[in-house]
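dumping this here before i forget
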Amino acid sequence: MSQLVPIPSPGEALYYGEPGNPVIVVLHDMYGRLPWLEPFAEAIASRGFRVAVPDLFDGVCTIDDPTARALMGALDLGTALAEIDDAMVEAQHTGTERVGLVGFSLGGWLALLHAQAGAADAVVAYYASLGPRDHGVIPCPVLLQWAETDDWEEGEDPESFVSRLKDHGTPVTQFGYLATRHGFANASIPAQLNQQAAALAFARTEVFLESNLID
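structure:
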């Protein structure tokens, strides 16, 4: 893992926005908590949310694909889900109850898994899905943001996943973005970024979160 880069506040969640507002927990992709997530979180916070961005990789990030895959492979699922819980609880200390999850790729997968416990009121997953083995009932509205080009294992493809969500009664909204591939919203990796699609997906994320979490 020679391409690891240390990050500020290692192992701790970063918080944005006013305490007491509805909480959004933003979960990074397999590259870790890269710098692009700060303006992303600040923009969501400006819409009336308290935003938490956990560090799931214990103080490091990367823009190197093999290193990112190694970081993802070393992730302990139980620890990651507990860190999401911790960020959520810390942000809720001011008394707010409504919580949304926003995740990208690995973070989207974790958000969808975590939402099955019933603690979230809304979930946004960018280019992420659950296979049949991991899929349970998600009892809150879900927004799915798909890339046009992606690689899916059997049963994880959007059509199969959305069909299972609907079978369980989950309210689902989904959008696909032309001329994009997996990772199109990650502004720290220019080779993947599609600025137009990322901006549109962000606007839809804001509207979805506001409609489900703010009276």
